[in-house]
Amino acid sequence: MSPTGTTATGRADRPRLTELQRKKNHTDSEQRRREVIRAAYDRLAEIVPGMAGHGRSEAAVLAAAVTEIRRQILRRVEIIEAMKEAGEDTGHLELPKDVVEAALAMEEEDPLTPQEGGAK
């Protein structure tokens, strides 16, 4: 052991955890991870129209978020087209082509159903 209190492999000189301690640490870590995910879904539900106060259905929040993002993309495309017709420069507003194509191809009714020909 070196004077810094570590072994040759760099690990601190301390006793190994028991199986029960390791299991408790894992359980605690998993619980913290779930709490972070729940809090993120709650925040997302707060900003997705129509989702505030609708419980904790993660699938419903995701579906509503996908629908809203798609709606916003399509609205932006409409605005850009109107600006182009008016002769305005829209280069700085354009979205990546693949994003627009994905939004156009997506089924609005069930946004979480995988689409044919692509991994979702």
Automatic annotation (TrEMBL):
Region (Disordered): 1-34
Subcellular location field: Nucleus
Gene Ontology CC entries for this record: nucleus
Residue ranges annotated for the BHLH domain, each copy included: 21-72
PROSITE patterns (UniProt xref): BHLH
Chief localisation class: nucleus
Gene3D superfamilies listed in its UniProt record: Helix-loop-helix DNA-binding domain
Keywords annotated in UniProt: DNA-binding, Nucleus, Transcription, Transcription regulation
InterPro entries: bHLH_dom (IPR011598), HLH_DNA-bd_sf (IPR036638), Max-like/E-box_TFs (IPR052207)
Gene Ontology MF annotations: DNA-binding transcription factor activity, RNA polymerase II-specific; protein dimerization activity; RNA polymerase II cis-regulatory region sequence-specific DNA binding
Composition bias, Basic and acidic residues: 11-34
Protein's name according to its UniProt entry: BHLH domain-containing protein
Organism listed in the record: Westerdykella ornata
